[in-house]
Design goal:
By secondary structure, the protein is α+β, with helices and mostly antiparallel strands. It has two domains: 151 residues, no CATH class; 148 residues, no CATH class. The chain has twelve helices and five strands. Strands 1-2-3-4-5 form a five-stranded antiparallel beta sheet. The longest helix has 17 residues. It is elongated.
Length: 353
């Protein structure tokens, strides 16, 4: 009988909390709760204490929880961030009926007509790195103008959706401007992924089987010291840094697609292996897969391992994975960036249920 991962174990990546602004750049704090798209809590003192890197990370996280991608665009470069948010989208982002955190909503409502007159249909901010700090500009009447401290604080209050104590680090220079940088940042803040160095992530590098297992393990909130009961059955675990994590995931039934005598932890994982492990993770998290649609519509379904067909269909129907030209390419490999998106969407799906 497969074990079920207890919800109580999810001290890091349960993704059930709120968004507001609580940044402490110099203090290492555990992240327990991350996602809720409606809350805005910010203060002048907190914003003043933020570094450019904090602002960068905050906006990356905020983008993930604005429900309509058409409402917000964020363009990042080596030393600047340009954020464009429609006024309509901003107002819609507060509509959840709870009104638990009214600061941003109140500021927007009180100044909506003025905002409309000044900015048109969308507010645009440009934040440029200046040393470890930053300067802020607002796009008004067809040109960029310096923002006063008050304007900057008000706009950050309205824009911000990131309620967490930002972890030190996570400013990966090789992910700046990458399509997956928000997903990478979310998983970094949740303690699910790490960089290849302090300042690099290698987003286009391939995900190995060992890395796949490690990221799924961290997302599960399991603990090596508490959950390890003995070595895995694979014969090639000696000397592998993640041997205990693999053993625990095997015990929970998450690695059944690796059914041989050897796990080969340094071998690149295939897309179908990733999908089967991820779907097994959903099941172990007590996500109700029985009621979910598992219809696999990819045209290369006949090239998939039989045990992976429904797993791939489940993730496809949940909107977690997609393919290209109607095909999934099950035997292909995937990059660290691609899996970051898949895993982030998986965790958000668990949170929603």
């Amino acid at each position: 009988m497969k074990k079920t991962i207890l919800a109580g174990a999810l001290s890091i990546a349960c993704f059930t909390g709120g968004f507001g602004l609580q940044a402490h750049a110099q203090e290492k704090v555990e992240v327990a709760n991350i996602i809720h798209p409606k809350q805005v809590v910010a203060s002048t003192n907190q914003v003043q204490s933020m570094s450019y890197q904090d602002i960068y990370k905050m906006f990356l996280l905020s983008k993930l929880v604005i429900e309509d991608d058409d409402d917000i665009t964020i363009v990042t470069s080596k030393n600047s961030i340009i954020v464009k948010m429609s006024l309509k989208g901003l107002m819609a982002s507060y509509t959840d009926g709870t009104n638990l955190f009214p600061e941003g909503e109140q500021a927007l409502k009180e100044n909506f007509d003025e905002f409309k007159k000044l900015y048109g249909d969308a507010i645009q901010m440009r934040i440029t790195q200046s040393g470890n700090g930053f300067k802020t500009e607002i796009f008004i009447a067809g040109k960029w103008e310096a923002a006063s401290d008050t304007d900057m604080f008000d706009l950050v209050t309205v824009f911000n959706r990131a309620d967490l104590d930002l972890k030190p680090g996570g400013y990966f220079t090789d992910a700046i401007g990458h399509w997956a940088e928000s997903y990478i940042q979310l998983l970094y803040q949740a303690g699910v992924v790490t960089g290849t160095t302090d300042t690099t992530f290698n987003p286009n590098g391939q995900v190995t089987r060992g890395q796949l297992a490690a990221m799924i393990f961290r997302a599960s909130g399991l603990d090596v010291n508490e959950d390890y009961e003995g070595p895995a059955s694979y014969k090639d675990m000696q000397g592998f840094w993640g041997a205990k994590e693999v053993a625990i995931l095997q015990e929970y039934g998450l690695l059944e697609i690796f059914d041989g005598n050897y796990f080969e932890p340094n071998k690149p994982a295939t897309r179908e292996e990733m999908a089967h492990v991820t779907a097994s993770y959903l099941e172990a998290m007590e996500f109700d897969v029985a009621k979910a649609n598992k219809n696999n519509t990819f045209t290369d379904k006949n090239q998939m391992r039989q045990e992976a067909v429904e797993s791939i269909g489940l993730l496809q129907q949940l909107g977690i994975i997609d393919g290209a030209n109607g095909k999934f390419n099950p035997k292909g490999n995937l990059t660290r960036a691609q899996f970051s998106k898949i895993l982030a969407l998986t965790l958000m799906t668990v949170s929603e249920e």
